[in-house]
Amino acid sequence: MAIRITKVYTRTGDQGQTALVGGKRVPKDTARVEAYGTLDELNAVLGIARVFNLEGRRRKSRDRIEGILRQLQNELFDLGSELATPKEADMRALVKYAPGHGHVDIREMPVRQPETDEILIKVKYCGICGTDLHIYADEFPNTPPVIMGHEYCGTVAEVGEGVAGDWQVGDRVVGELHTGACGTCFLCRAGKPHICEHKLALGSKYDGAFAEYLTLPAWLAHRIPEGVSWEVAGLSEPFAITTHCLVERSNLGPGQRVLISGAATMGLMATIWASRLGAEEIIVSGTEMDAALRFPLARALGATRTVNVQQEDVRQVVSELTEGIGVDCWVECSGAPAAIASGLGLLKKTGKAVLIGLVGPETIPIPWNTLLYKELDLVGCFSSPPSSWQKALAVEAEEAPKLRQLVSDIIPLDAWEEGFARMRRGEVVKILVDLEA
C-alpha cells in the first residue's frame, strides 16, 4: 500500500508570504516535508536522509533535523498499525516521481477524500497532451512526486458539504486546472486565475487526472453540455485554450486570412475556430509527419490550403494567396523554432501573431527588427481562463462532429508509454487514456 505523508515545520524567512501546502494556504515561513511510498521504502529513505542531512552540520542544525526525522519515523510506525483498516483506498495513477528526464511510472496512490469545498471525480478519460511530453522530458515546470494529466472528464463520485447544493453524485463534469490560484490578486480579480502567481497547475504541481479519481476544488468544475459524448468532453481543456487564443486574444473575424503553423491538436482546433469565425483563407502548415493523417483532417475541418514545409515554400504559398501582402493573423501552434523564426515574415504590416505552442528551450532567436518595421502585434497565450471555458462549452455540442475526429485512439493506462511515443512520432492527433478500462 502506498502512503503519502506531508508535514509542515516552522523556519525563518519569507515572513508575510504564503504558499499552498496540502491544499491549504499557509505562511511561507515554513518548510514542507513530503514523501510517499511503502512503509519499507519510506523507512529506508529516512535512514538515508538522516545520514545525508546530519553529516557535516553544526550541532544545533543536526539536533533540529534529527528531531524532524525522528518525528516522521514515529508517524510511520503509528501509521503502520493502522494499515489493517485503512481510511483511504488506493488507486492506480501515472506519477512523475522524481525530477529529471523520465522518472514516470504507474504507482499506487491514496484517494484523497474531498474537503468541504471540493468534489471527488471518478475519471473517465484523460487526454495525453504535448505538455505531458514536456513534463516527461523535464522541459516544463513540475514538482515531483505528482500525478500527471490535466485534460479530463468524469463523473462526480462524492461532494463536499460546502458545495452540496451545487453538485450531485452522478453529474458529468470537465474542469479547469488552476488549482492553487489565490483568488485575491489583481489577476484573479480580473478573471485570470490561469496566470495567477500562486497557481499550482493540475498535473504538474498538483495531483492530476491520470488516475482513477481526482479530488478537485468545486469552483473549477463545469457540467458537460447535454448531448456531448465522453470522447468529445475529453477534449474540452484544449478546446478552451484555443477558444481563449482565437476568440479572446486574436480577435480573428470574417474575411481575414490566417496562417496556422502546426497541425497537431492545437493547430487543428485553431482551424475549427478560424472556420467558425469566418476566416476567408485558412492555411495550415506542417511537416512530412502531418501529410498522411493531419493534413486531410485539417481540410475536413475548414482549412483552405495545407502546406508541407519540407516539400513546398510556405512563403511563396502565402504570397500567392494574399497577393504578396501577407496574412492578417499568424497562429503559432508548433513550438518549432524554425516555424517561429519564419512566421513573422509571413504577416502583413500591422498583422497579429498569436503564440500558442510551447518550445523546449527557454530562449530561441527571432527576427526582432521585423516586429518593429512591420508594426506587428505579438500576443502570447497560455492556458484558459474561466471565460474561455464558458465560450467553449457553449459551442461544444455544435462542433462535436469536428472535435470527435481529433480522437485517434483510446487506450488503457497500462499502455501510456506507447501512447506517449506515438504522440512524439506524430502518428496520431489525440489519444485519450481510459481510466475505467
What does this structure look like?
Helix content is 31%, strand content 27%. The model is unreliable at 1-41, 44-56 and 80-87 (pLDDT under 50). Helix 1 (39-54) runs antiparallel to helix 2, helix 6 packs across helix 7 and helix 7 runs parallel beside helix 8 (294-301). With 437 residues, it is α/β, with parallel strands linked by helices. It has helices at residues 39-54, 59-80, 130-136, 186-189, 230-233, 236-249, 265-276, 294-301, 314-321, 337-343, 368-373, 386-404, 416-425; strands at 3-10, 18-21, 24-27, 30-37, 90-96, 104-110, 118-127, 146-147, 151-159, 172-175, 213-217, 221-223, 257-261, 281-286, 305-308, 327-332, 347-355, 377-380, 407-412, 430-434. The two termini are 21 Å apart. The protein has three domains: 3-80, no CATH class; 90-235 and 406-434, Medium-chain alcohol dehydrogenases, catalytic domain (Quinone Oxidoreductase, Chain A, domain 1, Alpha-Beta Complex); 239-380, NAD(P)-binding Rossmann-like Domain (Rossmann fold, 3-Layer(aba) Sandwich), CATH 3.40.50. The strands form five sheets. Strands 7, 9, 10, 11, 12, 19 and 20 form a seven-stranded mixed sheet that branches. It is built from 13 helices and 20 strands.
